[in-house]
Amino acid sequence: MDGIRATLCSRNAHKARELERLLPGWTIEPLHAENWPEETGATYVENARAKAVFGREVLGPDRTYIGEDSGLEVAALGGRPGIESARYAPEGAPAIAKLLAELDRVDERAARYVSELVCLMPHGEVRGSGTLAGYIAEESRGAEGFGYDPVFVPEGEERTVAELGDGWKQRHSHRARAARALLAALGGALVLVAAGCGGMDRDTKKVLHAFFAGGPVARALGERFPHKPGTLPCVLHDKGVKLQATCATDISLVQPARAVVTLTEAWTHGAKAHTWFFFIRRDGTVQSVIQEGAPAPKP
Asked: Is the pTM higher than 0.85?
């Protein structure tokens, strides 16, 4: 789907700018409205969907709407503030001060960020989920990011998200992971539409052919991944043990000149998986690649 224009149903301008960077080829416009509904959902997904539905009620059904809900879950606080994160305290320094006060002299500081995206389109709904594990620092550090970023240290890092910077955040944040999951889900939805209309369209076929005929990494992956959207059985090797697995290919044509190819290996009955997100030009040239999930066994 080329040149998607979507309305982010949120009053947080930071999120609109961040999402536009995370969704290549998308134009994200904030929703300007009054009488926003209260967030009464029991889950992030319910709140995100309610925001998207509200946007559709305001502007009509023939647009694309994104609802997002996210929060910080702190283990020592029983998962709080969680879905109440935006109402825990005024954003920024007041919320951070309250959080650090609650964790004063607390040794267990494990936490995670959670993000849920719900995208309502004229032809249906797709979702994307993302999490980022870490812990809460003893004090605020760093100047980039927003929200709790100055006190959140991601797993495997020593600096806070605010110190790591917006470039790191764009690749690794909970919202970045949710956005990539949304792209993958959208790609899958478009595959189903195409299948109902007689199979893969000409543009998709051409782009995937160019991608798998490209550099050595894509050619190697192309030996076991299907060259069209879908899934094939494959065999992986982990410490000398053969694993029956599945290799799946998805693609989203997100812009006239760009696409996202998603390759996923899943094994142990789908309990473990490794995913490659290739951001490419439509001539097959790889611009960037991000990997997520469990370490991939050898084919």
From this structure: no
